Amino acid sequence: VSMASPFPTAAELLVEARRAYEQTYGEETPRLVAVCAPGRVNLIGEHTDYNQGFVLPMALPLVTVMVGSPTFDQDVAVTTLSEDADEPRKIHFHLPADGTPLSPGSPKWANYLKGVIQHYRAPPVPGFRAVICSSVPLGGGLSSSASLEVAAYTFLQQLKPDDEDKVSKAVACQQAEHTHAGVPCGIMDQFVSVLGREGQALLIDCRSMEATPVPLADPNLVVLITNSNVRHHLNGSEYPTRRRQCEQAASILGKDSLRDATMEDLEDARDKMDDVTFRRAHHVIEEIDRTVRAAEALKKGAYKEFGELMVESHNSLRDLYEVSCRELDELVAAAVEVEGVYGSRMTGGGFGGCTVTLLQAHVIDRTLLHIQERYSGTPTFYVTTPSEGARALSL
Ligand code: GAF
Fold first, then answer.
1. This prediction's pTM
2. Which of 164, 232, 249, 365 reaches 20 to 30 Å from 4, CA-CA?
3. Could you report the per-residue pLDDT of 77-117, keeping only the tens digit for each?
4. Does the beta carbon of 46 sit less than 6 angstroms from any atom of ligand 1?
5. How far apart are CA 174 and CA 375, in angstroms?
6. pLDDT at 15 over 60
7. Ligand 1 within 6 A of 186 CB?
8. Is this complex scored with an ipTM above 0.85?
9. The CATH number of the domain covering residues in 221-384
10. Which of 145, 178, 189, 355 to mutate for ligand 1's pocket (most ligand atoms within 8 Å of CB)?
11. Which of 183, 188, 310, 314 gets mutated to test ligand 1 (max ligand atoms within 8 A of its CB)?
12. Can you quote a single GO CC term (predicted)?
């Protein structure tokens, strides 16, 4: 009897979405198609993707499902079953006939959809109606937005196939996030949502866009996600600011990106940059190296070493990159107090959201209890395994 949150499978979400579809649009459903795309958790390699570095995420069994059919006109009608904010759950719009951009607007969730339509590699897309539902917690740092983008792209592929490879698909979804959600994100989230594999984490080289699978299916090991259930809405400028600071540091060092810089390069240039820029670069340069070492450790089954690197990563994100917060620090501190826990760290962009913890399977209950006892807020736990990337679902 675990305190971990149960979550519906893709098949269960599909039943729910299909029922809603029939209620909304009628039972007459020619050419009905269904797809899903996962959220992700990043094991290590944070804020390295937009520095052309390495990341080590895995796709989650938490997914966004989209079910619907083409309408053979220029209309798009979509309903979401997500209980988010005060936004309307339905959107209806016309596809511009002449390639005029679909501008972002309200509700916000529909912007991901519009962005994906805009960047779809086999334009023009046909009209359609659809229902979306998801088990990825919204705004929790598990890439609910990437899972929505990738689900929408995969849905469009069922209506009108493109001839592109999977990396181009991930890049198109990343562009959707840039232009329609205004977040200048890296490639990690969309990449792993498209290319994730069951039983494996992916070591992604964000420069070459090559991914090396790292097996992660040891039954004695648990990947625990703890949602702090806080989201600090700073002013939304923290992420772009970090990105700019990294670019500035690279340019001072005379490099294309921080991927090409060493700590020695950085030390030599200490006088040429302010302290904040120095610390940002310090984190990124070491984190890229840590991620490669962590992937090696995981391959060898050296979990203790992996866990230590996780904690180093967290401390660096807290002290040098300054994207953690009190709640995430508390969760990590509590987790690593438990005997049998290998390591723990914040995961994703930061300022709230989730931590990821690697532990021995037999201490899971003790760990959940201890975290719950020590955390000042109310956590939500997910016990997860590396899962398959985006896919069509059979009806
Ligand atoms: C967010 C971004 F979307 C990713 O691209 C990545 O930069 C991450 O923050 C930090 O590692 O999830």
1. 0.97
2. 232
3. 999 998 776 788 999 999 988 778 899 999 999 999 999 99
4. yes
5. 34
6. yes
7. yes
8. yes
9. 3.30.70.890
10. 189
11. 188
12. cytosol
